[in-house]
Amino acid sequence: MSERNRGGWDGETVGIVLIVSTVFLALLVTNLAVRAGHALAGITEELGNPLEITLGVFTGRVAWPVASTVVAAVLGLIFLVLLVLVTMRVTRRRSGQGRVDEAARRMGRGRDIESISERAVKEKARRLGVDVEADAFGIPIARQIGSGKMIYQSWEDTCVDIHGTRAGKTTSRVIPAILAGIGPVVVTSNKRDVVDATRGVREDKGRVWVYDPQGMIGEQPSWWWNPLTYVTDDVKARSLANLLAFASRPAGGKEDAYFGPASKNLLSGLLLAAALDGRPITQVNLWQAQPWDDEPAQILKRHGYDLMGAQLEGFTKLTEKQRDGVYGGVDPMIACLTTRAAAPWFTPTGPADPRPQFEPADFVRSNETLYLVSREGEGTLGPLILALTVAVAEEAERFAATQPGGRLARPMLLALDEAANICRWPELPNLYSHYGSRGIIPMTILQSWSQGVEVWGENGMKKLWEAANVRVYGGGTVNVTFLDELSRLIGHYDDEVTTTSTSSGRGGASRSRSTQIQRRRILDVEDLGSLPRGRCLVFASGARPVLAATVPWFNGPYKEQIEASIAKHDPNATTTVDQAAREASTIKQEQHQLIASGGPQ
């Protein structure tokens, strides 16, 4: 017969510990009861050491008044309550959220995560010239399980977040990051909640621009942006054409080997012709619908773009089938420009349009906020959202190159929520490697690894993930391959397994014990797949993986300002705030208990 015990204590050891603890507790209660009882009863009997007192009580040599019985009963009740509480806590920590929290003691903490600690991030902010007394010194991530201390993303760290649906990414990551912004902030979203919760707070720092061409939150087109201001030459024309083509292509779709490049070349020429001639961008739709019209080719030639003009002329002279294929390929790329209701957002309302025009060059020099709102699927204005995001980012890069150190003095945050749906930026993986050093901080938020693969391909998604300085996983994913990679990154621990064997023979029973060391994963794939809400894993450059507790906005420093913003802008404000209050009462209670106890030791 054999008995196995993982962790080093077998049944015999546990029994000895229980006996010793019971004896010690009996001695303690007896001594306290005798001394307190004698004091209450006015007995002045000389008492010896604890062992003599205990023996004296049992032999009758030491008086045991009624008061001692009362004291002993009270002490017994107290110890019983403590025992129940400890048992409940141990049980809770051995299951569900507590079971996962146990892994924190084997993961990054203390010096292992110094690079994302408050002290280190503050020091980096000072080195970058940030006023840490007046401004946020970094972007809050979460509280480390165990110490309860906040960990931060610095103002030169790029970030990728992966959170499944209903995993709290908006309340715990997007909103706190936006409110931490100390320079211009660009936000992409497919829901109004982010805008409603933060615009009131951001208005205190500068103007708020809300781009809502699909009317998702009812914002009126009180301003407009001309996409053709981005097209300053043939290079920028090709860049915009590529963006419109990529963003309009179905996720995972492939372009035709012949018609795809030809259609993008055609669109490049049409965009440049419209820009050079001062036409609105919707002129491109009219030219695309009339493949025999050589006006755009003549415009290009007049402005010295002879080769591009000749190329457009060549497209008009193709066989009917080829020409239809090339011109037809442009149609889905500019479909976003055909919605009549959206036109005021990207075209002037008349020759003397009084509305202000958004200028990326002014924006990147400000503390303003730009919200870009669109939905995915049929009728999406995602291509325009992408074009405006890229226009702002490239302008910020140009401005940063003129600043001391080649970086923005007040970093610009790109909070790219729903990036794979409404802001499918093809060059994003290539930009991560140097944007942080420019003071441009992209924060790409995805629902799953597979979602990123659909946009950038397997290699592109790996490049994006690996180039980020901070990577956050917030649960809700069932991709086993991805979770297995995370599990490997988190690491292993040595588990001591003791085996006790009992055998019977002529000489009687004999026991033998052997100990083995087994390598086990700190968190298995199933642990990561069922990560409880309110927990996240943080992988930062130069730090061990960290298990952390998320901090939703309703448990943060901007709670009152956010509620006021919601009350002002959200038509369902009461429901939104009530829901946040219900979530807060649950999450705050759990995290307060964790922090107060010091967490797993």
**Largest sheet: number of strands, sense, barrel closure:** 11 strands, mixed
Distance between the termini: 35 Å
Helix fraction?
40-55%
Q: What spatial order of strands do you see in the largest sheet? A: 3-2-14-13-10-4-9-8-5-7-6
Secondary-structure content class: alpha/beta
The average pLDDT is 88
What is the overall number of helices? 22
The count of DSSP E runs of length 2 or more, i.e. the number of strands, is 14
Shape: elongated
**Structural domain count:** 3
Return Rg in Å. 33 Å
Descriptive overview:
With 601 residues, the chain is of the alpha/beta class. The radius of gyration is 33 Å and the shape is elongated. The protein contains 22 helices and 14 strands. α1 packs across α2, α9 (259-276) packs across α11 and α21 runs antiparallel to α22 (573-597). Strands 3-2-14-13-10-4-9-8-5-7-6 form an eleven-stranded mixed sheet, with helices on both faces. It has a three-stranded antiparallel sheet with strand order 1-11-12.
